[in-house]
## 1
Amino acid sequence: MLDLSNHHQSIQIVIDKHSQKVKNEYRMRLEASIDVSRFLLQYGLPFRGHDESESSINQGFFLGLLRWHGDKHPDAGKVILENAPQNDTLTCPMIQKDIANACAKETLKAIIGDLNGDYFGILVDESKDISHKEQMALVLRFVNKNGEVVERFIDLVHVSDTSACSLKKAIYSLLSVHSLSPSKIRGQGYDGASNMKGEINGLKTLIMKDSPSAYYIHCFAHQLQLTLVAIAKKHLDVEDFFDHVSNMLNVVGGFFKRRDLLRDHQAKKLEQLFESGEVKKGQGLHQERGLQRPGDTRWGSHFKTLDSFIVIFSSIVHVLEVIELEGSTSSDRNQAEYLLTKRKSSGVSYEHHLCVEVFFVVIDVQLQELNDRFDVVSGDLLLGMGSLKSGQFFL
């Protein structure tokens, strides 16, 4: 009878080595996919491309970056993508989602750990996605272990409707998932919608019934934005001015050829200023300006529009003069002529008109609007914060 024990032992050694090699290759493929996913998640980049076929020259960020990773690390390149077993490439959409979900769980675990069971405030907003489904976003505001005030995004969830009861249920459900108690809420921050700040059945009232210390503050920045934008619609001269700016944006910035003409004139004028010594060259100076359309509810965008308008005013006038003479249609030529020659006849000086009839009136309307939108508590809090910032309060 033959002794096969040594032969069997040799076979087992070969099997063990092969199994270890397979495990190492799998680990390298998984680590490569995880590294690429973490990079894309860190910078908020999309994973998938429009065409991910092998013949595509743009397969999307995930596959493209994974291929680049393999080129830079030959050991990984030997076991990923087309060099991997076809049933174990670890690149399919389901795998990508699993990795992203795992990263999200680890991130949330770190956030909750940083909170360390302490008190927190909640910031909530809702909006419709592209498919018109209502979505609710939840952000926690708290003091971390380093004593820093931080805001951390927790989740974005679908809600059946935006009633106060539905939003409260969704908030409590999210807090429960992360073992957070509503009794720890010490602040609420929402917009000014009635379902959020209503005194009887609003979300803030429902939560304060469970946690009386969860004081509600309407976002100050949001209130200020609404106040300033409301002024632009209430004062006739201001409204007329922004209508004039909007018409100018449509005429000058509505076509590629006109935008190119605007850029060319800016470049030529800047070169002339360099030659005359009126401006100096330097890194970060004299960036190209464009025409940005202001948003309806963001006063900052109005400021950016006007700031650019002032800087490139002469270039805008030049483009309008060209359109007035060479416009392709009579409507374009008439619009350019109207924008260039519109003036209001007045029996007072410009200084009196701008100072008395516009500036003082707008300030009065702004004060009235601020008093209407900010209650006494919010006003006192703002004054206190302003005093602390200016160094008038000492501890």
## 2
Amino acid sequence: MNQMLQDAEVQTSQAQATETENAPDTPALPPAVEHPRFAKPQRVAFVQSAWHRDVVEECRIAFLREIEERHITNVDVFEVPGSFEIPLHAQILAKTRRYTAIVAAGLVVDGGIYRHEFVADTVIKALMDVQLRTEVPVFSAVLTPQQFHETEVHYDFFRKHFAIKGVEVAEACANTLLSLERLRGQVAAGIVG
């Protein structure tokens, strides 16, 4: 009887090996990542520039998908005319204390090298000021390409680039909120401070 069981096990192993050898070459999917959960619900404001909306929206779409995987489902989206208007909206939203984080997305182009660099630099500095004044973290996906031409090739490139930035800003947002949640808990417990 033992010999029959052993023979059956050998046949099963051989059949599995044959199936594996004959299986089509499909790439193995990476294992699903289980992201840490928050102790308290998080609410995020996403402030997006309407200028070059078709490009910038790729950031929002990728951000929303990634942030949901990281257990943040309360996201309010706001749209402003251009990137220059983002900091004031971010400050007003931060002062409401309704949001645990604010994410900004915009594409600053046109008007010569000095103008768009000035606008982008001003926006980034203003967002940092909002963050430091209100203690609400502010994340930037406001981008300034060195060269942007109104061609389909550039539009396609920056749509893909903004999708990548959306995932990156979601990761930074979630990780920072987790870190701040931990830090604030330690401060409240008297461990830090």
